[in-house]
Amino acid sequence: MKKPVRANLYLGLVCVLFAVLTLTVWIPLDVKSGILEKVRGRMSIGDALAPTVAASFILLGGFLLVLFERKASDQPALTLKPTLFIGRLVLLFAVAILLMRLLGPWTVAFTNLFAAEPQEYRLLRVYFPWKYIGFVSGGLLLVAGVITLVERRFTWRAVLTGVLVVMLMILFYDLPFDDLLLPPNGDV
Amino acid sequence: MEVFDYIRLGILAVFQGPEVLSVFGISISITVLMIVAGFLLGIAVGATPGLAGPMAMAISLPILISAFGYHTDALLPVMGFLIGIMKGATVGGAVPAILFNTPGTPDAFITTLDGYPMAQKGQAKKALRVAHLSSASGDTFSDLVLFVCAPFLAIVVERFLDLPEKTGLIILSLSFIAAVIGGSVAKGLISTGLGLLAVYIGTGEDFYPRLSMDTQELSQGFPITTSVLGVLIIGAVFMGLEELWSQKHQSGKIEQAKDRGDQRLRWPEIKRLLPFIGRSAVIGTAIGALPGIGSTLAATLGHTLGKSTYDKKKAKDAPGFGEGVPEGVAATEAANSSVSGANLIPVLSLGIPGNAAAVFLILAAESLGGLNPGPSVFRFTTDSVNPELVAVFGLFTCMVIANLCNWTIGGVFMRTMGVMIRIPKQLLLPSVLLVTLTAIYVQETRIEALWFALGFGVLGYLMRKLGISPLPFVIAFILGGKLEETARQAFSATGNDPFFLFTSPIAAAFIVMSIAVIVWGARRGAK
Question: Which residues between 13 and 52 in chain B have a beta carbon less than 8 angstroms from any beta carbon of chain A?
Answer without folding.
Answer: none
